Amino acid sequence: MATQLDPGELDLQEQLAKIRQMMDASDRDRAETRKLSAETRVISASIVLQAMLATAALLGAGAAIAKLFFPG
């Protein structure tokens, strides 16, 4: 009976179809991960420098006010 398919062949084709689906899902997930990582920005050095300057300015202002109220 050459016209009938072997049940083992059906299982193999089913497994191959599942593997292809999983590979497609994996590719989609990897593409989404790449897109999200590209959209994520790392804090640049200029932002860090500005934060440090702002902190130094606030400390300087606090020291000036303290010297004004507590001379000595």
Overall description:
By secondary structure, this protein is an all-alpha fold. Helix content is 81%, strand content 0%. The radius of gyration is 33 Å and the shape is rod-shaped. The protein starts with 6 loop residues before the first helix and ends with a helix.
What keyword list fits this structure?
72 residues, 2 helices, 0% strand, rod-shaped, mainly alpha
Order of helices and strands: HH
Question: Roughly how much helix do the residues carry, as a percent range?
Answer: over 70%
Terminal-residue CA separation: 109 Å
Q: List the total number of helices.
A: 2
Largest sheet: none
Query: Could you list the spans in which at least 5 consecutive residues all have pLDDT below 50?
Result: none
Mean pLDDT: 87
Shape: rod-shaped
Instruction: Give the beta-strand count.
Output: 0
Radius of gyration: 33 Å
Helix-strand category? mainly alpha
Q: Approximately what portion of the residues adopt beta-strand conformation?
A: under 5%
